[in-house]
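Practice problem: predict the structure.
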Amino acid sequence: MKPISRIDPTTNQLYFRGISATELACSSDFESVLYLLVHGILPTTQQREQLVSQMKEFRGFYKKDIQSLNAVVKNLDTLRDKHGLDLFETLLTFVTMCPIVIANQLAKSQDREAENAQDELGHAANFLWMVRGIMPMKIDVIDFQTSLILHMDDPDNPSLTALQQKLDDGDVSDSLLAALSEHIGPLHHGAGTQAMIMFEDIQEPDNVREYLRNRLKSGQKIFGLGHRIYRGIDPRAVVLREMLERRTMKTCDEWLLHVSDAVAREGSVLLSEQKGIDSFPNIDLYNAVVYFTFGFPPKLNTSLFAVSRAAGWMAHILEYLKSQ
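Answer:
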């Protein structure tokens, strides 16, 4: 079976089980890619329907007192015992409940109630429904689903390292808690939020060079540029940049496209001039700003990243324990 995820630096591509992640993001759906990560092959229609049915059933396990992703993890053993779940089903419960918890967190922060999950809606569409209260347009579902898929796994990231280290001790819940704890770090999955904060500070493309020069002078990081493995632009960033252009063109948010492009251009030049580093846009340059076009506040970006990455964590846990 091919690796859950792999980056080929010679072609600058990310693969999920040997299939281009960007191609999957633009042509598949969350449930099918989740099946691929876990089982190593894309599902048949019947296999996908079975997975979707299980996920819809597990939505019913959510209770209002489960108010954080950490709380989901801490309730997994109880849910497992109460409902007679095996390990696959327990982890699928975690994946299923993540967007429901985040939707309720967002609604609570806005002094309102999230909508109840709808059985006819898939994983991505149901989240949009819960936070908006209106049936999402098809293009929004497609774009949101694409964004989720792009973030589902990465072979070299701090949250995965933390998860695997705890798995050595044999505790699944502790491994998920360790991954969640590492996940919120500002230099890793919090970088997208920080990039969006930069854009809001900059406001105009003409301000970019001076702003970034001052950041570097004060020892601050330019978020959204550079990657440990990719030798060029992150292929996921290409997809999100195209999505951002389409979603903001001729709208009041078009300035975000121009500012982010200027950061990519001027930031790369400054890092080359001042530090001798070749830096290219990574996924964090665009993820929070793309989610902003759905009406989501920048601070939600890290949580949405976890909604995606839960699928990768599930796949890695199952594969690791199977190998022992």
